[in-house]
Design a protein that fits this description.
Blueprint (H helix, E strand, L loop, with lengths): L13 E5 L5 H8 L2 H4 L13 H9 L6 E7 L5 E11 L4 E8 L8 H15 L5 E7 L3 H9 L3 E12 L2 E11 L4
Parallel strand pairs: 4-5
Antiparallel strand pairs: 1-2, 2-3, 3-4, 5-7, 6-7
Length: 179
């Protein structure tokens, strides 16, 4: 994927680029932060657990997932990832997923990223529906989705196993052409 094909992010602090294997250590560093772990479904025991993700992103044909690196405009340090899981060309749907380092929380980064990637998904990928599933305790992410015009559609009880326990999630969605 070339830079010209990437979503344009208006936020002055961050930019997007393709995710690379060399990002693994920075990605793992913030994903292992207890403040991040608490509200995500990641279950990583070591940096090696991320390697399968890189394999999935590189080999899926047609792509069933896509993940981009969120980097600081100054210095290029990885501070997050964003992309789509469960891409269905047949149904023109996908699930948005993102994670950010606590160092950029509270600065409007997630809202800018989600808006840019969702708009790109509708316009460039031809998606009709983009949904998100969010662990019920992740109030920050719930607010981001609501600011980005996602609508709450349902409550998913025991939806995913989170480090050995059932987790409850909220289901949100945004439909193309509906602001």
């Amino acid at each position: 994927m070339h830079a010209v094909d990437l979503p344009a992010v208006a936020h002055p602090l961050v930019a997007l680029r393709p995710l690379e294997r060399s990002d693994a250590s920075a990605w793992y560093a913030y994903l292992a932060d207890p403040a991040v772990v608490e509200h995500t479904s990641w279950d990583l025991r070591s940096i090696d657990d991320l390697q399968a993700n890189f394999d999935d992103y590189a080999s899926a044909q047609p792509a069933s997932s896509l993940r981009l690196a969120v980097v600081l405009r100054e210095g290029g340090q990885l501070v997050g990832t964003i992309g789509f899981n469960a891409i269905s060309p047949q149904h023109r749907t996908a699930e948005i997923a993102y994670d950010l380092s606590p160092g950029v929380w509270g600065r409007g980064v997630a809202t800018s990223l989600v808006n840019a990637v969702v708009d790109w998904g509708f316009q460039r990928l031809g998606l009709l529906r983009i949904q998100a599933t969010v662990l019920e305790s992740n109030a920050r992410s719930l607010r981001v989705l609501e600011r980005c015009a996602f609508e709450r559609e349902g409550y998913l009880r025991s939806y995913r196993q989170i480090r050995g326990r059932s987790g409850n999630f909220w289901l949100y969605a945004r439909i193309a052409g509906i602001p």
